[in-house]
């Protein structure tokens, strides 16, 4: 028999008993806002993430002028434009510049957050994680801000399902203003640089436009916010239409625009990069021919510089291929020179980069089929099916998607490191 036959609702310590309900502990019902935030962060998108090991960055003595311009803008708190948009074609070196700037800002204690989009990574090819990732990085710099962000999530645990503008106001703007108003944070000394790379790799032009609109309305609209946002992207529709002068885009007056390919000629930097890297490869090679002061020749370097047409991606691909340790750098460089047509830039943008990719893959085909127990698989078939109307970045995406499928099968056996890079 029950000791309390008429009891309906009472409390013992932290235990609540209600009619027709299970018994539960009050402490178990607490929401941990910071833990929820961590569950919605794209750690792969951080500038120092292990997933981005050996991320591209500017080589010594290269891109000095544009790097200085970027850092000067970040450090100038009085500059009226608090948004910087750096645009350039595929392979122009945007990501390398953003990585370099992120590291310099981190060293100088000005990096608030960084997010590197990537089309091939489901955690960083959409808008799902970008605001939580930015909020998390900002919160890690200041305990009071971190606690305020956590409380905002505990108050509204469905925030991660809300529109981006609501997320930005709830997780970034609101908590920052609250902590500043309480006197716990000095906005003038807070780490203020927010870097976003590869906006064009965020899937969907509408999503790209939504991010730009959110930044405009949430981070640029309030003069009391200290944030300076630097975005790098190919000049595709979302950012091109926002920055255009006629008709005037909604970011035209607000953004400091650096058209990378137009403003900075990278030819001299590419020349220095190729000389330094290839000579260094030669010094470390077991091929005695590579130790000669006559290798590489000036003619070889100039032919590669002309083929690069101002795009660092071409030079970086050459260096990766020549540095592959299973072959002679002398032979590999000669192969690239032989593959390179005379006459420099072709009629289609970056056509010589496509030619380089195709020849590297064709040359690698024999190696891959040599370790394949099921002969007859032509892994260039997919590329050939598209090459008539293929853009350079589409070719790279197709190649990557193919090798992703084959990586697990071969476990890296017999595959040069540059393939996975």
From TrEMBL:
KW Repeat (keyword) present: yes
Residue span(s) of domain Nephrocystin 3-like N-terminal: 68-234
Leader sequence residues: none
UniProt keyword annotations, A-Z: Repeat
Keyword Repeat attributed: yes
Taxonomic superkingdom: Eukaryota
Protein name: Nephrocystin 3-like N-terminal domain-containing protein
Taxonomic source organism: Candolleomyces aberdarensis
């Amino acid at each position: 028999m029950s000791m309390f036959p008429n009891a309906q609702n009472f409390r013992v310590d932290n235990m609540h008993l209600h009619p027709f309900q299970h018994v539960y502990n009050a402490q178990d019902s607490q929401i941990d806002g910071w833990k929820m935030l961590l569950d919605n962060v794209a750690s792969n998108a951080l500038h120092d993430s292990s997933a981005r090991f050996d991320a591209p960055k500017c080589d010594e003595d290269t891109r000095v002028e544009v790097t200085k311009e970027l850092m000067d803008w970040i450090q100038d708190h009085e500059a009226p434009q608090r948004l910087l948009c750096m645009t350039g074609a595929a392979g122009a070196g945007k990501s390398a510049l953003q990585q370099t700037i992120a590291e310099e800002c981190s060293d100088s204690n000005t990096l608030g957050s960084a997010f590197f989009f990537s089309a091939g990574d489901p955690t960083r090819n959409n808008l799902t994680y970008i605001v939580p990732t930015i909020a998390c990085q900002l919160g890690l710099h200041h305990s009071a801000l971190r606690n305020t962000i956590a409380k905002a999530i505990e108050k509204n645990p469905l925030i991660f399902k809300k529109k981006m503008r609501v997320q930005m106001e709830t997780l970034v703007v609101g908590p920052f203003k609250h902590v500043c108003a309480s006197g716990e944070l000095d906005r003038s000394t807070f780490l203020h640089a927010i870097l976003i790379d590869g906006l064009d790799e965020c899937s969907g032009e509408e999503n790209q436009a939504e991010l730009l609109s959110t930044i405009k309305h949430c981070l640029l609209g309030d003069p009391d916010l200290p944030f300076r946002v630097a975005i790098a992207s190919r000049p595709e529709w979302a950012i091109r239409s926002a920055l255009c002068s006629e008709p005037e885009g909604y970011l035209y007056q607000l953004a400091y625009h650096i058209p990378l390919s137009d403003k900075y000629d990278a030819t001299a930097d590419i020349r220095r990069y190729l000389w330094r890297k290839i000579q260094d490869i030669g010094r470390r090679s077991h091929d005695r021919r590579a130790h000669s002061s006559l290798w590489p020749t000036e003619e070889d370097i100039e032919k590669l510089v002309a083929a690069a047409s101002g795009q660092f991606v071409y030079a970086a691909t050459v260096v990766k291929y020549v540095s592959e340790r299973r072959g002679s750098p002398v032979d590999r460089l000669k192969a690239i020179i032989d593959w390179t047509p005379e006459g420099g830039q072709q009629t289609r943008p970056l056509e010589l980069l496509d030619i380089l990719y195709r020849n590297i893959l064709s040359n690698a085909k024999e190696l891959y089929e040599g370790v394949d127990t099921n002969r007859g698989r032509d892994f260039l078939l997919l590329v050939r099916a598209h090459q008539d109307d293929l853009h350079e970045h589409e070719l790279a995406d197709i190649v990557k998607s193919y090798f992703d499928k084959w990586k697990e099968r071969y476990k890296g056996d017999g595959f040069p490191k540059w393939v996975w890079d």
